[in-house]
Amino acid sequence: MNLVPLGASDLRVTPICLGTMTFGEQVSEADSHAILDRALERGINFLDTAEMYSVPTRAETFGATETILGNWFRKNPAARQKVVLATKVAGPSRGMPWVREGVGMTASDIVASCEKSLRQLQTDVIDLYQIHWPERHVPMFGSMYYDPQQERTQTSIHEQLEAFERLRKAGKIRHIGLSNETPYGVHEFVRLAEQHGLPRVATVQNVYCLVSRGLENGLDETMHRLDVSLLAYSPLAFGLLTGKYDLCGTDGPDTPRDARIGKFESVRKQRWGRPEALAAARRYNQLARDHGLTPTRMALAFCYTKWQVASTIIGVRTLAQLDEDLDAWGTTLAPELLAEIDKVRWEIRDPAV
């Protein structure tokens, strides 16, 4: 697969990125290293992690994923030079005091988190440093409506960009990105960066999959016009679009307990556990089978081939899952199948927005 540029930066990455949030919770360190080895062998040069990982986040495993990656880099020094490494600074704590104290995210928080990530990752520089979720109060992770009464902003976007500039000048980060962002946020980060000569956003990492296509309602135009690249996460909707829950549901006695939705009650309470999301996934999964495809292959091919997507972030627990996801690359969806997909979306919209 050819490398693709990320925004206006000099980063060139594979159109498939290995996400690592399962490492340290569902996946042991040894198995994580085997997955990383296989991904590198198969040509993947893009890794994404976060200071908050593993997921579901809890105090006992906070930072475990970066530590696992750092140990892999220590064992394989040459690997660090072969990959583009992305990680994220957590936004306000959202009820997770082990992630961040206080209600905001200050410039000093950004600097301290970056330095901690560098130590855990055992590297001198982070290629793409992202804000995991906005410091502003915005609807995210399944929330639908913006409420001005909930605004608690303490650190302006300008101040955040100045913190990134200090890190860039110190040689600790190369480029910056956002995650779980809105059109306003992307515009404002780019506007202020250009106005004040501060680091320009290269990417936005947002959810994008068959059951959650809200990005196509305006954010895609914003990113296209501003030359900001999309990193699409949850292309399989936490497993809903693999078909594994089609018969058993997400909370029944036969639900796979090794999968995230089946194993973690906190995940079932999120957008992926909604009955409407499962009902929609079942329709898409059957559509895939009717066209001779596995649900996984169709869902991934949908992301892999959309003009909006620069790189699709896949998360796996096993080598078999990794190979299945990578083998889906090159699959094209017939125009009539794409029309049927859009017909379903017209009827049910985005139940896991």
From TrEMBL:
It comes from the Bacteria. Coiled coil: none annotated. Residues 15-344 form the NADP-dependent oxidoreductase domain. The keyword Oxidoreductase applies. GO terms for molecular function: oxidoreductase activity. Keywords: Oxidoreductase. This is Aldo/keto reductase.
